[in-house]
Structure formats: C-alpha cells, structure tokens
Amino acid sequence: METSQPHRPGDHVIEVTDLHRHYGAGSSRYHAVRGVDLTVGRGELFALLGTNGAGKTSTMELIEGLAAPTEGRVRVLGHDPYRERAAVRPRIGIMLQEGGFPGDLTVAETGRAWAGATSHARPLDEALELVDLRHRRDVRVKQLSGGERRRLDLAMALLGRPEVLFLDEPSTGLDPEARAAVWRLVRELRAQGTTVLLTTHYLEEAEELADRLAIMHGGRIVAAGTVAEVIAGRPSQISFELPEFAGASIPPLAGATVTADGRKVTVRTPHLQATLTELLGWADHQGIALGALDARSASLEQAFLAIAAEAAHQPPADSPATPPARRKLIGLAR
Amino acid sequence: MTTAVTTATATGPKSTSVRRLLALGRAEGILLLRNRTALFTAVLLPLFLIFGLQSVLAQQAETNPGLDVDSLLVNGAIGMVLAFVVYYNLTAAYVARRGELVLKRLRTGEARDLEILAGTAVPSVGLALVMCAVIGVVGATALDLTAPANPILLAVGLVLVVATLMALAAVSSAFTRTVESSGITTMPVLLLTQFGSGLFIPLEVMPERLADICRLLPTTPAFQLVRVGWFGTDGSAAPTGFAGTWATAAPHLVTGGIWLALAVWGAVRYFRWEPRR
User: What is the pLDDT of residues B40-66, one digit of tens each?
Assistant: First the structure.
C-alpha cells in the first residue's frame, strides 16, 4: 500500500452529509441509503466496500449527481452535483458498474462521439493508450471481449482528464493481468493528483489502492478509516493442527481465545507475537509438532467479514427482510 | 498499459450543446447506415407507401369530383415520410440504445437529457426533412404545384410535426421492450397518423362528424398546418392567400400546441433510460 498523499484538511473534493435514498413508495418503499457521511480530500483515493445490496452503487449515483438524494447534502468540487451538473460534470469522470456503447460502432467512432460530448477531451489515441486498446480502435464494440469493453468504458471516463474519477467496480470482469494494469493506471492517476472514489467487492483492491475506505452494510457506513485503522483492534489469528494423541491440552494463553474443532485449533489474539511465543514455547516443551501452522495479522478481509457479520446481527428496525428484486438482480449479475 | 497519463498534450475545446448534438447525431447516423432494417423502413417503405397513396387518392377522386389529388398526394407523402422516418425509426432507436445501456452511460457525461434524445434524433429528422424537400421539389416541378401560400406556417407545421413525433417516439419507446416489438407498439400512432390525420384519407371525404373527431387527433393539427402553409387550405374551404391562411391555421395551432405539450409531458413522465429489470 502506498503512503497517503498529504492533503490540506478542509480541502474536501467530496463532502457527503447525512445522505438518504429511498426507492419506490408505499409498502414497496425501500430505504437503500440510510444516513451516509463521508469526505474525500483532493488527491485521495477512497474505496467504498460492502456486500451486494449494501448501498454502494446507490450512494455513488447520488455523489455522481445521477439522482437527487431523498435527504441529505452532497458537494463535489464545492457544487451540488445534481442541481449544478453543468459546473461539475466537465470536471469529473464516471465509469458505471454497467454502462454500454452501441455495438455497431467501432472503438474509434465511440471515442469520437464521446469526445464531442466532453469538454477539453484528450486526444482519443492517448485515452485508448491508457487502457491498452489503441490496437483495437477499428474493431466494432460488439466484437470486444467483456474485459475490453470495461477498459473502453474506463478510457471514456478518462477522456476529459477528470479531477475526480468515480469508478463503480472497475475491475469486475477483468482477468488478473488486466486488473493489475488497471490498478497501475489508477495509482498513476492518483499520483498526479486525481481524486478517486471507487467501489469494489475485492478487498485486496481496496487494500492495494485506497488511502482510506469505508465499509457499507444495510445502507450505512459501519466502519471507516485507513486500512490500518479499520483493522486496528481486530484480532490476529493463529491456526494449527495438533498431532493425534497429543497427550497435553493447550494451556491458557494470555488475552487469547482458543477454539478447537477436533484436532484443528484456532487462536485469536490481539498480541500476535506474545501469544505465538507462548504457544511455540509450550509445544517445544511438550515435544509436540504443530501441523499446518499458520499465523497472520488481522487482514482487511477478516475485518470485513467480522464487521459484516456483526452488522448483520443488528439489522435496522425498518429494514425489509429482503430488498426488492431490482436491487437483488444487480447483485446477482455481478 | 503505458505511462501516457503524464503526457499532457493538446486538449479539445469546451463541449457545447451544438457540439454534443452533432457528435451524438453523427454516431447515430453511422448506426442508421449500418442497420439495414432501419434503413429500409426509413427510405424504401415510405416510397412504396407513396405509390399506394397515389392509387388510393385516385380512387377517391372518382367518387369525389373536385378533390385536389396532386396537393393531397404531396401532403400525404410528406406526412408518411415524417411518420415512418421520424416516429417509427426513432422509437426503435431509443429502444435499442436503452437496451444497450447507451442512454444510461450517456447520462453520466456532460450531455443533458434533452440533448441525448435530440442527438439520437438528428439523423432521423435530418433524413426525413431531406426526403420532404425532395418530395416538395419533385411535386412542384412534376405536378406543377403552386408555391407555398404561407412558408412560415409551412415551417411551423413541419417543426410541430417533428417535435410531436419525437415526443411520441419517446413515449412509445417506454412501452416497448425490444426493437423487434417496436413494430407492434408503434402501430396505434402510425395507424392514427396514416388514416386519421388526413394523409391516406383526406378529411374532406370523411363524414362530417368523423372528420371533426379526426381533427382533434394528436398529429392531425400539425399535418393540417403543413397543408395550410403550402396549399392555403385544410380542405374545409377554398384556398386563401398568405393573410387568409392565418385564420385557417389558428385552430390547428391551438390543438397542435396542446398535443405537443401532452406528448412532451408523457415523454417526461414515462421515458425510461434503463431497461426494466
């Protein structure tokens, strides 16, 4: 993970206060976003994480200015992105989770049409070069692979050299190589001062790219901060297998919780080094070889799963058992 | 992927409404040329129908002596072209772009909603107006028709027809799931324009009561304005000159304006930017 770029406090490119979004009305009314607050500083890369249906895309759409919030306030570059779209749109780039281009146009024709609708567009070949699609400029969009279409989508989002870039699941549908390339590109853009707000359900993507992140669940932000901050306080984990007929039971380990499933043992501890030392000392003393020994610091993935599980146990009072079909289908389509 | 991000080279101009309309229109024009079905409906179908129209009008002239077949033919041909090329074609185009999520993607850019809809319509409307101009020139020379009695009214009528048909296309697309089914969903409006707006069957050969009802249909007033603008009459009285046409046109301007407003309201209310899930 890269070090955070210094940015002046108060120089917030994105400011979101108490954001709410409802869909539908009456009994089918669905409260997708339930009071989200977040700020993103200039040049910062902020990742919005969450399970499917957590409200990431709904939140993104409000910040992008594609819809008006039911309640709350959004400011992008100091403007209301919905009411003052003419002031905001030329300075931002958006890549939707699913958006399309006419299949019968070539890559170059698509790019020309977009350039005509984009202020201060960079040369098309430069934009295509960024996503390694220049060699495909005369190919019809319908003949591109899924990954190539995603990259074309990204190129169009970058066409106007945006100050703020919105990426909704940018690497979904990409092969590992293309994903790594997109990560490199996003890092480069950020290094040049582009502010990036991205959603992802790849935790390693957030870990790799984000200066700060927020985890959403049930329309709310349930944890936020740098990766280190979100992980902080989460226990490290040691796992191993006891040999048959170990003859000795595991001693109490200070501050740790031990769970055993047959011979498989999992230890969770806030003090990895101390607990591990204690455990290995005990094993050595007993002459026991611990099989499949694995010790790891808390990861974002563990933190995420734990946070999601905790949050799932306290569903918001007015939450319907399942979100309406529309939201669910989007989740399934991924 | 390379490090071309750093090379800050030339940038294009600021995006304006006109540039956006032209850019979107150009892309849509390429798509129209590459879509054989759409091209057929846009160019050949109206031509076939014009031949059909001619024989229908000739038949009606036998039972209605004094019917001005030539002017009705030109008026009907213009109406037919506008109905098929603008309304039918555009409905299919909106449905296709919506299905491909193109409209959804375009909305994230600088183009406003109306610019996206209008930009998509540029080639259809342009092609239709060119065809109308050809029909006008051919009509004027081959059929030896008079010059337009009131060119302003003619232009207002054409604008009203085009605007109403665009709005109706937006409404119809909302009730059309696939491009294939647009043939069915556009039927009501197409039948209404062909048979109820004085194109295939002149209003003056209809029974009085029926003609009065037809005059109130959505596209009738706009088509009647075109007719009044060129031929100085909507068929209910003898042709008049420039000054007299305003009085003839006034009721059509009112009803046509109301229908345009209703169609626009419907488009705003019902148009869908994304496919239904």
Answer: 888 888 888 888 888 888 888 888 887
